Amino acid sequence: MARLRNNKRKPFVKPIIRKQPTVDHVTGDKIPKSFVFCRGKLPGPLRQLQMDLRKLMLPFTALKLKEKKRNNLKDFLNVAGPMGVTHFLILSKTETAPYLRVARTPQGPTLTFKIHEYSLATDIVRSQLRPRSSKDLFKNPPLIVLSGFGTGEQHLKLTTIMFQNIFPAIDINTVKVSSCQRIVLLNYNKDTKLIDFRHYSIRLQPVGVSRRIRKFVQNHQAISVGLVTIISHGPLAGYGSESEVDDEAATVSLPMDIGRVNRASNKSAVKLQEVGPRMTLQLMKIEEGLCTGGVIFSEFGKIFYLL
């Protein structure tokens, strides 16, 4: 008797491909990635602040992260694992003030900050006479600079470690100066216990070259280094204003591969221009787990234990 053939096809199940965490080829460490999202309903300005924070965390963040009302923290945590996300930045709003929580996945700790004041990136741009707009500004992660956190207190040490691990580490021996386009500055005031959060862009301008010569070199890519040297020391050197860069300002000696303008002079001035957003934060609480667990530090004086 002939054997009947089973024509019923098995449904195709797409295999789950887990992305390996990105590793820095220079330092060998895992590159931190982040999710920036909100919990609860936010007003329009805080929604814009959320987008500004996502842009600040580029390129290792989800700029177009989709979130719905029914999503809970576990949903984001399930997606974070396969994508190699290491940190959460969570915005929320209560009746008294907005809050920012910075958490490390998957097991914490979680730092809760109260946002006393904030300014959006659009507000910063409108206040500037010549705002900087560059396509490559957000191509590389920013540098992180912490000031005033070395007081020896345990909760400030933990805050320092948390913010240092949010951004990728750099090797000063191999890093390219041209990749350092932005800087995030956090300044802690021990008297007011407030943290000033600032975001700047970095510009390098040669010392001893007039503004007209500098713009001429930037607009003409085929110009040679010798021509810049001749013009800057020749009859045209007296024309143009050098008020933007002072010879007494902070200068740095740079390699010869950072740009056409700086080849005319090895000494360049470092100029910071605020990009935004700007925030004034206060550390309110540190929790052991991911938005849960024992309280390591509390601003109200209730401390269960210290690290």
Radius of gyration over C-alpha positions, nearest whole angstrom: 25 Å
SSE series: EHHEEEHEHEEHHEEEE
- CATH C-level class of the largest domain: Alpha Beta
Q: What does the largest sheet look like?
A: 11 strands, mixed
Structural class: alpha+beta
Number of helices: 6
CATH superfamily of the largest domain: Brix domain
What percent of the residues sit in helical stretches (DSSP H or I)? 10-25%
Q: What's the CATH topology label of the largest domain?
A: Rossmann fold
- Unreliable segments of 5+ consecutive residues: 12-21, 221-249, 254-261
Shape: globular
Beta-strand content bin: 25-35%
Total discrete domains: 2
How confident overall, as mean pLDDT?
Answer: 78
The CATH architecture classification of the largest domain is 3-Layer(aba) Sandwich
Number of strands: 11
The end-to-end span amounts to 77 Å
Structural commentary:
- This protein has helices spanning 44-56, 73-83, 121-126, 154-166, 211-219, 225-233, and strands at 34-38, 87-93, 98-104, 110-119, 143-147, 182-189, 194-206, 251-253, 267-274, 278-287, 295-298.
- 20% of the residues lie in helices and 26% in strands.
- With 307 residues, it is an alpha+beta fold.
- The protein folds into two domains: 34-202 and 276-298, Brix domain (Rossmann fold, 3-Layer(aba) Sandwich), CATH 3.40.50.10480; 208-263, no CATH class.
- The protein is globular.
- Strands 1, 2, 3, 4, 5, 6, 7, 8, 9, 10 and 11 form an eleven-stranded mixed beta sheet that branches.
